[in-house]
Design brief:
Blueprint lengths: L1 H16 L2 E5 L5 E2 L4 E9 L3 E8 L6 E2 L5 E4 L5 E3 L2 E3 L8 E2 L6 E8 L8 E6 L7 E6 L2 H15 L3 H15 L7 H14 L3 H13 L5 H10 L5
Antiparallel strand pairs: 1-3, 2-12, 3-4, 4-10, 5-9, 6-7, 6-11, 8-10, 11-12
Helix pairs in contact: 2-3, 3-4, 4-5, 4-6
């Protein structure tokens, strides 16, 4: 009987604690702060941990996090921040000592719903709030985006363009939060390779699409002088 109870306890332990998933530098469609980076997301059965880093680039710089930070699910449901570490809660703030100094901090939320493929991370405040839109929680998709991005960074825009178009073909019409990033990269790479027809074609596709936050991605392109 004791042996059966022990086996049951062990099985229960693995059910409760066995689930975990880590995403190192997950891709996202758009963010608000240039020097704010999303370094890691840890998902467990007990909580969601989001790790971030912000770099100071000005004299007298400071940073804080509002207590009203939430994860936004694709269906519009919010999951509120439960704890933070390494970052003062506004109006208190961390005052950087030097230019180039980085502040690493973490945010804790309730466990993520099983099967969630993407989220938005939003700070709801009155001034200079941060946000990450379309954070990708799909390991295979993150890997494919990383590989295409490496080609672009290594000055192989034509090859990167082909890869991003292939990625788009597998996620189109799914209203995925990461689609904005794919469209932006295709349009920019097409323009970089002087393929104006393809850039215009995908710009039109973006305008006609139903992807979340479409207007933000169009505004981002327009701010860089890209409009068709």
């Amino acid at each position: 009987m004791k042996k059966l109870l022990l086996i049951f306890s062990l099985l229960n332990f693995f059910v409760v604690t066995g689930y975990s998933q880590t995403y190192i530098k997950p891709n996202y469609a758009l963010k608000s702060h240039e020097t704010l980076e999303l370094t890691k997301i840890d998902l467990t059965a007990q909580k969601t941990l989001i790790f971030l880093s912000v770099e100071n680039r000005i004299t007298g710089g400071y940073f804080c996090a509002d207590k009203n930070i939430f994860i936004l699910y694709p269906d519009g449901t919010r999951s509120k921040l439960t704890a933070s570490k390494g970052i003062p809660v506004c109006p208190d703030s961390y005052k950087f000592k030097t230019i180039g100094e980085k502040l690493n901090f973490e945010l804790t939320f309730p466990p993520l719903r099983p099967g969630t493929q993407w989220i938005d991370l939003i700070e709801d405040c009155s001034d200079n709030c941060f946000s990450f839109f379309g954070v990708c929680l799909n390991t295979d998709l993150n890997k494919r985006i990383d590989e295409a991005s490496v080609l672009a960074e290594n000055e192989k825009p034509a090859e990167a363009l082909i890869d991003f178009i292939k990625i788009a073909g597998t996620i189109e019409s799914k209203n995925s939060g990461i689609e904005g990033l794919i469209y932006i990269n295709i349009i920019k790479l097409a323009k970089e390779t002087n393929n104006i027809q393809k850039a215009s074609e995908w710009y039109s596709k973006l305008k006609l699409s139903g992807i979340p936050r479409k207007d933000l991605y169009i505004k981002h392109l327009n701010s860089q002088g890209i409009i068709y």
